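no rush on this but wanted to send it before i forget. what follows is a protein written twice so to speak, once as letters and once as structure tokens for the fold. mainly i need to know what kind of three dimensional shape the backbone takes. thanks a lot i owe you, the record is right below.
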Amino acid sequence: MLARLGWRMSFAAPPGPRVLVVVYPHTSNWDFPLGILARFASGWPIHWIGKHSMFRGPLRPLFLGWGGIPIDRSRPGGFIEGMVEAFSSRPVMIVAIAPEGTRSHVNCWKSGFYRIALAAGVPVGLGFIDYASRSMGILEYINLSGDSAADMARIRAAYAGKGGLRPEHAGQIRLADEAGAPRDAP
């Protein structure tokens, strides 16, 4: 289906049965249907994180069946621990998350993906949607070192040249502790 829509996919096989995939940039509502199509095209049992309000009403069973995991962003406590436990208790788990946490511009990524991957000991897949080239996939997999500045520099380099549908909405690829500023400050 994606090929018929003019999209190319390039998915490197996961290095193991448990992976956390960050998907960047997330700048448009169109990222969601493209991501769902990519999930099915990959043939992998990919789960994805979405805001809890998406899971209300008649679409809830469909989204859950498509691998959705709802998160209430107004109550972040316990999410990281829950995801680490999920990775520990399942023999196979691939989870996709948008580290920006929104389609709007932010000064830095949320650090949850980083803390989950480190605590669970899972590699991070660098997923992308590039509207300019009409391509999507996973650039590479990295094992985080715990040196967030070095890890984020490597991630920034990998994503160079990838652009969302609304490039001005793309968040800066850095964590708050690296940025030295509040998450949403100008």
Remarks:
- The longest helix spans residues 31-42.
